[in-house]
């Protein structure tokens, strides 16, 4: 890669912190099996003036999802599940589901299947106020949050069975809507494997890849490395302390609910090991986790073309399809930042970001902690610097 072009990144990261857009950020680019650059800027804790470092721990939120998808792939290639399995085979709360149509509850045309969960075509939603599904999901997650620190804290399977009883927003497979599908997959994995979702991830992904700082909570000995979360509601950055989506902000104790959609924390180096495993089609540093065929299946688009227009309604997903809990670039010419065919990845609610570019053997990672962030103009500016630094023959 062109190092002169990559050297534009530090000034942009400094701009992000000096303008108060973020408290701190780190950024890594790996290409050709080598770290091409690592940069950091700003603070993980503004009040204590503690800087962001390589070992800073970040809340991943939705960047948890690709890890959950990989966990499902283990069960798939071992023949333990089929993508057409009804979710009700594993979670009884999904039996006899209904769909809210024009204010009337009607039976589903077909059950929610595992592939619906992977592709966000399940009819499940995130909490909100836009539909009956969102409102009932909001009430359920409020109950989860109310009981987070009590002996009555709801477990992963308990919550997901309750979620299955909520009317769906649409008939499974007929639309695409971002929602709690990945959390349901965590519960399915528990039922199939016979161990907790967190234990499954530890055994199958985190320990083999030496992802020692990745998990569903941050032990006391590591709490000083956990970045503070920040929000900006018009008064500049201020600390954010509240639970979200059933996940505590302080991450101090092992949770009863291990969220497959949003619950993990990690460092940039840990996540880079996972991303390189995907990039190298299932193997990293001579450790083979998944077969190349499985990773190829995981990282190619499965969404019916007729559903892509739902994905494109998100500005940041222009030119993308969606499958296995990740965006997958189909048409770089329709994208709003420089891209390459077949690129895939995802981001998180607090701004963490992953892009894997198989054509050029490259991974881009960003870690930051600002609420309601996802993919921003700054993210795209970073992408444009990184992708323009690639030196290849078209």
Short characterization:
This protein is α+β, with helices and mostly antiparallel strands. It contains twelve helices and 16 strands.
Structure description:
By secondary structure, this protein is an alpha+beta fold. The protein has two domains: 3-73 and 199-388, Beta-lactamase (3-Layer(aba) Sandwich), CATH 3.40.710; 81-184, no CATH class. The protein has twelve helices and 16 strands. Strands 3-2-1-16-15-14-13-12 form an eight-stranded antiparallel sheet, sandwiched between helices. Strand 10 (283-284) and strand 11 (287-288) form a beta hairpin. Helix 3 (65-77) crosses helix 8. The longest helix has 15 residues, at 132-146. The radius of gyration is 20 Å and the shape is globular.
Q: Which features would summarize this protein structure in a list?
A:
394 residues; alpha+beta; Beta-lactamase; 2 domains; 12 helices; 29% helix; globular
